[in-house]
Design goal:
This protein has 752 residues and is mainly alpha-helical. Helix content is 42%, strand content 6%.
Length: 752
């Protein structure tokens, strides 16, 4: 196919046959699903974002058709490309972003400051591009879940142009569109006040201010607050708490905070343009360069995550020592010697450096040797050592020069330091040794050097992590093999503070070859962590089919329950991993095992809207009428969550539409009316749901539909025999309820 040049003619309508048959669901939301697909012609992965047209009148797909010519023109480094449509699947075909959303990354990993600054700058670049179009293309949906990450964790803006302000649109309707997408934290105050102006570029600038806060704090704004509370606080000028930004931050962060405060200013006229923000964030992202090389995985196992020196799992926070702010020290002589290093004028540095420099203590208890190692020049390191530098000196956080050299994978300098007596066993304040850092980074050459110089292969840092745990988590097979050759068989079973073994970590992250290796070395497939989860629990939850298959072959107990009573099948069903459910059931997993709350895998699949998983579970013996907590069936849960496709599948599998839950006597139809799920109501009525069923408060579905003001549901109930005259326990008819709730259209209909 010809390369897309941005013209509307090339905005292609793909057929389902244009993609290979293996569609992998990678994300799900209320309005649809995202699949990873592969185009036969291009031989590349794409994202196929499908929309449920029954759930969303103003849905992504229809909006994209309307805006096709505009969206096709938007081609930019920091914007997700849209390639076309697939009408057969009511889907949009987009660029595939392998590392998912920024929202998920912020929740699962700790980012170092340089990377945070860089991501803020890249997001501002993308938004500046949208706003520089004529007329400006407003996003109106900017949030961390719509900022996606490519193979190298660079930022791209997604889902722009979906929410529009239409001429004559009411503020109330516009707010409903926004809040339906979970955007409450990102909406500027003028949107829900008396201001009548349509949203402009300052709307996105406000949202960007909240995004900056999320990146800096790695927390969610207004956590635990109701929609009403958020609206009230924001309208009175309250914003997310700046004190939640970590105290240990570079001084450049103050400038980012200043930008953030300007972006979320109460007066939209005071908010900066993205063109200004881009220039400021560019300067800041240049100041804090991302340290060290980007390291690609050394294990070709599919599903592996890339490892970055500046991206660390929550347990392990690494702060790479940086060159100082040279204006911060008072003595000119100290400044000049460090400035030679920062300018990389190594010849002048070696000529100028004196013994007194070597014994000087800089900020953070850093020595000249620390800075010389960070400069990466081996000859300068040798010169400083020759002047009597203490090779095992430590910074305030306990970093030795050797640890800094290992963080940057400076093999010549590592060898030099070890020759001069650097202690391979010395740890930092968290008892991380140089070998821990080498294992984290997948640096097998350094690991071998360290082990040959006396590094302890099974050294545990203060949370119990050995280098082997780190190498298994990050998928570094060569390092794992090296460590296993120096470890006893018992070490393979060692647990860290949360009780996880190396096999738990390899399984959770999908590293198949490492899991095979550990099992061959005597790892116990049924070891449990502190929550009683086995490796099978973790791999089933994360969707690693091949690891699941390996563990089953290796004797993993299939119905082992964790502390909540969840089996691997429960977790696979909850996440919608249909293939893993099939595999577990084929290996005789119990299809109706129950959690401590009484939920079966079918309940959990229905709760999350995984219709393919529901079908799979039912076809392999799962009960569609199982009663869980309070007597709720899977059908109750699907109606409660407004999942009409699941409702249809359950009813087709003979789910009882008239079953009552225990506490309030609600039938699925009561629940569907309360959830205002019109498609679910239609499915239930077509399967003979009792439209006049009463709950413990004698309310009928019609009472509930009238209360919630949904005209289509009220009409459907009336057309199918709903009685207008029935009284609830307060003596009210549906008409009385509609009047009390001021649903005047419903009142008019019921009075006819």
């Amino acid at each position: 196919m010809d390369c897309l040049d941005g013209s509307p003619e090339q905005f292609r309508n793909f057929k389902k046959d244009d993609f290979e048959a293996d569609w992998i669901k990678v994300a799900e939301c209320r309005f649809g699903q995202v699949y990873q697909v592969k185009l036969k012609d291009w031989r590349v992965k794409c994202a196929l974002k499908s929309s449920d047209t029954t759930l969303c009148a103003n849905n992504f797909y229809r909006r994209t058709i309307d805006e096709a010519s505009n969206i096709a023109k938007v081609k930019f480094k920091y914007i997700v490309s849209v390639y076309g449509l697939c009408s057969e699947a009511t889907s949009v075909v987009m660029e595939y972003m392998s590392n998912g959303s920024l929202n998920n990354l912020l929740a699962s990993h700790n980012l170092m400051w340089p990377k945070k600054f860089h991501m803020i700058h890249e997001a501002s670049m993308g938004m500046n591009f949208l706003h520089s179009m004529k007329p400006p293309l407003l996003h109106l949906n900017l949030k961390t879940s719509n900022i996606l990450l490519d193979d190298h964790l660079h930022v791209k803006i997604s889902d722009f142009g979906l929410i529009h302000w239409e001429e004559g649109m009411s503020k109330k309707l516009f707010m409903e569109h926004l809040t339906a997408r979970g955007n409450i934290s990102y909406i500027p105050p003028e949107t829900f006040t008396q201001c009548t102006d349509p949203p402009g570029t300052s709307f996105d600038v406000y949202s960007f201010g909240i995004v900056i806060w999320e990146i800096l704090t790695q927390q969610k704004p207004y956590a635990g607050c109701s929609v009403t509370t958020v609206l009230l606080q924001v309208s009175h000028g309250k914003r997310p708490c700046v004190e939640l930004i970590p105290e240990q931050k570079p001084h450049e962060c103050d400038q980012i905070i200043s930008i953030m405060r300007q972006c979320w200013d109460q007066d939209h006229r005071n908010r900066p343009q993205f063109s200004d923000t881009v220039r400021k964030t560019e300067a800041l992202s240049e100041v804090l360069k991302i340290p060290g090389p980007i390291q690609c995985p050394k294990n070709g196992d599919e599903g592996q995550k890339l490892n970055y020196p500046w991206l660390v799992s929550p347990i392990h926070k690494i702060a790479v020592p940086e060159m100082p702010d040279l204006t911060s020290d008072d003595q000119h002589d100290k400044d000049s010697i460090l400035s030679l290093l920062s300018k990389k004028d190594f010849g002048s540095f070696r000529q100028s450096v004196k013994r007194e420099h070597v014994y000087t203590e800089f900020s953070g208890k850093k020595s000249l040797l620390h800075y010389t190692v960070a400069s990466r020049d081996a000859a300068s390191v040798e010169r400083v050592l020759s002047l009597g530098a203490e090779v095992n000196c430590t910074t305030a956080r306990g970093y030795t020069p050797l640890i800094i050299a290992v963080l940057h994978s400076l093999h010549d300098i590592i060898s030099l330091l070890l020759e001069h007596g650097a202690a391979a066993t010395q740890g930092d304040e968290d008892q991380w040794t140089a070998l821990h850092f080498a294992a984290q980074n997948g640096d097998d050459r350094t690991a071998r050097l360290l082990l040959d110089k006396g590094a302890v292969a099974d050294a545990a840092e203060k949370a119990g992590w050995m280098p082997l745990h780190l190498a298994c988590q990050n998928g570094h097979e060569t390092v794992v093999r090296l460590l296993l050759s120096r470890l006893s068989e018992e070490a393979v079973r060692e647990r860290e503070a949360l009780g996880r073994t190396p096999l738990h970590l390899a399984s959770a992250y999908g590293h198949l070859n490492i899991a095979k290796l550990l099992l061959s070395q005597g790892a116990d497939p049924n070891a449990t962590d502190c929550s009683l989860s086995t490796a099978l629990h973790l791999s089933a939850e994360e969707g690693h089919n091949r690891v699941v298959r390996l563990l089953l072959k290796s004797g993993a107990i299939i119905d082992s329950a964790d502390r909540r009573g969840y089996t691997p099948l429960h977790l696979a069903a909850l996440k919608g991993h249909t293939g893993i459910c099939r595999q577990l059931l084929s290996s005789r997993a119990s299809p109706d095992c129950r959690t401590l709350q009484g939920w079966t895998p079918m309940h959990l699949a229905a709760l999350r809207g995984h219709e393919a998983t529901v079908v799979q579970l039912e076809s392999q013996g799962g009960c569609v009428n199982a009663r869980g907590d309070n007597g709720w069936t899977p059908l109750h849960l699907a109606c409660h969550q407004s999942e009409p496709e699941v409702v249809a599948k359950l009813l087709a599998a003979k789910a009882d539409p008239n079953v009552s839950e225990d506490s309030e006597g609600w039938t699925p139809l009561h629940v569907a009316c309360t959830s205002v799920s019109f498609p679910s109501v239609l499915h239930l009525i077509s399967h003979h749901a009792d439209v006049n069923a009463i709950n413990s408060g004698k309310a009928t579905p019609l009472h509930l539909a009238a209360q919630h003001g949904c005209m289509p549901i009220v009409k459907a109930l009336l057309l199918n025999g709903a009685e207008r005259t029935l009284l609830d326990s307060s003596g009210s008819t549906a008409l009385n309820v509609a009047r009390r709730c001021e649903k005047w259209e419903i009142v008019q209909l019921l009075e006819e």
